[in-house]
Amino acid sequence: MTVRTRVAPSPTGDPHVGTAYIALFNLAFARQHGGQFLLRIEDTDQQRSTADSEQAILDSLRWLGLEWDEGPDVGGPHGPYRQSERKDIYLEHVQMLLDSGHAFKCYRTTEELDELRKQKEAAEVRTAIKASDLELDADEYARREAAGAPYVVRMKVPEEGVCVVQDMLRGDIELDWAQVDAQILLKSDGMPTYHLANVVDDHLMEITHVLRGEEWISSAPKHKLLYQYFGWEMPKLCHMPLLRNPDKTKLSKRKNPTSIMFYERMGFMPEALLNYLGRMGWSMPDEREKFAREEMFANFDVQRVSLGGPVFDMEKLRWLNSMWLRELTPEQFATRFAQWGLKPENMLPLIPHVQPRVEVFSDVVPLAGHFLAGIPELKAEQFEHKAYDAESVVKTLQFGLWQLEAIRHWDKAEIEARLFALAGQLELKVRDFLYPFFIAIAGTSSTISVLDSMALLGPDMSRSRVRSAIELLGGVGKKKLKKMEKDYEVVAAAIQQAISES
Fold first, then answer.
1. What pLDDT shows up at residue 444?
2. If residue 4 lies in a helix (H) or strand (E), which one and from where to where?
3. Cβ contacts of 486-492, under 8 Å, gap ≥ 24
4. Rounded-to-integer distance, Cα 419 and Cα 407, Å
5. Catalytic residue numbers, as ranges
6. Which of 16, 98, 188, 300 is in Cβ range 3.0-4.6 Å of 28 for a Cys bridge?
7. Contact 400, 466 (CB under 8 A)
8. What is the mean pLDDT of residues 369-387?
């Protein structure tokens, strides 16, 4: 048997370090066994998936030194490798489940489902929604079907008993069928859910081992049941521990930068970041902390993975990166620095903004030094402005951050449209509104347009700098955040309408 593993990210945002972490361990396992590693794009969420995000995934994984044997850009015998291009395959397999009686069309409306959940809650019935809960009488079912009412396809699951899932690290895991819902397999738009597409693709692509995050343990019974329904052998499962923030919560962008491209923009060496991810829950036999990718592959043993939640500590990563940097010769350091900070694709877009403003080359760094910096070291006093008090500047930055996070195609026009519309909603002059963003992004208002700066810096660094500024100014506590989110909903709706009408 040839070992075949995969990673299957969704192109719905910035490429996540968690994706790189899972990809690394799947690649290491495949290479340890002389096997193959695949990249599959799970883009069934057509509303949020973008080509830009997919490209960022490919670029960031390659920057880290993670290569795949089959994938959407390199091809292979098991394609297509984008789920959006496999719709007919999923429809065929859904029909197989309907014909065998293992799935059913569900015509229940959102309102009916909400009411059903309320009834269960009121009766203190702590079970998931089952096929028996969703049944309509024959006449009503026929009426909705004849009327062409929208429906989803759900799988049938047992109502009682225990499902035993075998895990390579955890042994047998017992899960109560009562807590497993009648999972939607096909959405009303005709696209499959992750659960169906994942099982069908893994089988057809001959995946033998699935190393994935432990958050998928609760879904394992559904996947095991689908394999049984289709009469297929299930790949061996290995649920990896989740990456954690220093406070042990799940790694999140609010507490740690999570975008891979942020670390590239910060100037981390890809070898060091990959080394650090390899240390997340795993260790070399001799326990040394610094090791190259090939050394990890040569010594990899999945049984050395620890189930304790590995902590992603930025300071530890910076220390490890410094170890890699110090081993470079001066010539190597100069070359690597130039490749990072002075590469033409980054510099050339900046020159038209800087060149008209300088008289000598030494003027460039004060004007544009923030393009070669990480997170600016700021002081709260720098945000003082006649248009703001301490609370309103945090609110403006937070609302602005949410608008920046909503951008799917990062460019100046989109940034300007959203932020200028937000300024209008907050009844602030654009010049006053932009001031805290100048400070957060560049550390000064005496530089090129902050909109141009954000467009050039990219979404990862821009958002991270704004988040850092919010934290510097005291952050947003849970209670305040709840109220702020409620206020923002009104503002965001008005902005979206304004953008749609423009």
1. 92
2. strand 4-7
3. 488/398, 488/399, 488/402, 491/399, 491/422, 491/425, 491/426, 492/402, 492/403, 492/406
4. 11
5. 253
6. 300
7. yes
8. 93
Q: CA-CA distance, 314 to 143, in Å (whole number)?
A: 59
- Please name the residue ranges forming H helices in 174-254: 194-204, 220-230
43, 49 Cβ separation under 8 angstroms: yes
CA proximity to 230, closest of 103, 106, 345: 103
Give the separation between CA 25 and CA 7, rounded to whole angstroms. 10
Token pair for residue 222? Answer: 């559904």
Q: Quick one: pLDDT band at residue 324, thresholds 50, 70, 90?
A: very high
Closest CA to 322 of 384, 275, 387: 275
In this structure, what token pair is assigned to residue 62?
A: 């390659």
Going by their DSSP bridges, the two strands 103-106 and 152-155 should be labelled as antiparallel
Number of H helices, E strands in the chain: 21, 9
Most distant CA atoms of the chain, gap in Å: 83
Both tokens of 48, joined, read 């949020």
The alpha carbon of 139 is separated from its chain's Cα centroid by a whole number of angstroms, namely 44
Long-range interactions of 484-493: CB distance < 8 A, separation 24+: 484/395, 484/398, 484/399, 488/398, 488/399, 488/402, 491/399, 491/422, 491/425, 491/426, 492/402, 492/403, 492/406
The model's confidence at residue 478, banded by pLDDT at 50, 70 and 90, is: confident
- Give CA–CA dist 39/3, Å, rounded: 15
Q: Which of 166, 232, 180 is nearest to 202 (CA)?
A: 232
pLDDT in tens, 168-215: 999 999 999 999 999 999 999 999 999 999 999 999 999 999 999 999
Question: Of all residues in the chain, what percent carry a pLDDT higher than 90?
Answer: 84
Q: d(Cα 437, Cα 423) in Å, to the nearest integer?
A: 12
* Interior angle at CA 169, CA 164 and CA 170, nearest 5: 40
Beta bridge partners of 240: 213
Question: 128-169: per-residue pLDDT in tens?
Answer: 999 999 999 999 999 999 999 999 999 999 999 999 999 999
Enter the tokens of residue 38: 């695949």
Gap between the Cα atoms of 38 and 132, Å rounded: 39
Query: What tokens does 335 get?
Result: 């070359």
